[in-house]
Design brief:
alpha/beta; Aspartate Aminotransferase, domain 1; Aspartate Aminotransferase, domain 2; 7-stranded mixed β-sheet; 10 helices; 12 strands
Length: 386
Amino acid sequence: MLHCQQELFSLDPDVHYLNCAYKAPLLKSAEEAAKKALIRDRNPFKIQGPDFFEDAKIIRQEFAKLIQTKEENIAIIPSTSYGLASVFKNLKCGPGKHAYCIENDFPSDYLTIKKWCSTQNAELRTLSFPKGIEGDLRESSQIIIDSLNSDTSVLLMSAIHWMTGENYDLKAIGNKCEELGIYFVVDGTQFVGAMPINVEENKIDALICAAYKWLMGPYSTGLAYFHPKLHNGEPIEESWINRKGSENFANLTDYNLEYAEGAGRFNMGQYSNFILLPMLKSGLLQINSWQPKNIQDYCFELGKPLFKCLEKLGIQFESEAKRAHHLFGIPLDESINLDILKNKMAEERLILSFRGNNLRVALHLFNNKEDINALIRVLEASKILD
């Protein structure tokens, strides 16, 4: 199993940062890549024609490797909302059809499909799940599967729930969507890079990921997978760099109307960003070196003492089968004194996010036992004893 990788980051040693789901800390390698890129930018003549394409190609290759598909299915985007807009621009819905999203899913997901349904005169239905922690992975996933029918046009959902880390059986859901001809669109922002995924095996039609969390990239970068069935779609912008032959700068005013092959048409304009792309490339190379399964295994072992503490304190939590190991929510019920919790977090310099009624814990390879112990001390001090 991997050991703690804290030495690869420049995190403040006095801070317990359990908040990668908010934003990943910068890798030292990404920091160096950014410095080199900034220095090169002092003299623009050092940026040559191939520099517009080479890093982008490597990034698409590394992301394709990560999600187990081909480079031609990958596009570089600036945000999740951009990627979702590109997908839904090319989906149509017949009369009497409906679409599904997940209760309390991320705003960009909900707002995108809500707008799409209004333009398509389709009904938007929200899937909700029984409260509680009994059962296993099949519970929520089975509710999703049982809800789908021949009148369902699209299912949009996060790969895991962004507030609680609740896990879903993507393969079973994807198989059902394929069987019924439903577009299966997945927000992988809180999943990809920390958990293994095979988009083709899971029958996913589009996978959209912001890169500044578990992909270890900078803000304003993202990546998307588009199934070949979407490759003839219309992008949301008409960029010169998304056309065939764009590498030949001398012929740009030939105004080639043919888009780049595969998902290349969905690349954002100016995707060659000479500062951000070297940073993103560094992050993807590191993740593929670590491997997401190893990240999950490390987080599982690291979190064991925390879950023993929660059990001892009588704090309910999702069963092991229903939660991701890198991201999970601790329910904050009336047995927790929130004022004490927040004060103790400040004292310990413990950084986490409050999402809904949960204290969201997001572990990574830069975390260690001292971080977990700090959280345990805070929870023990905040619990109202009977």
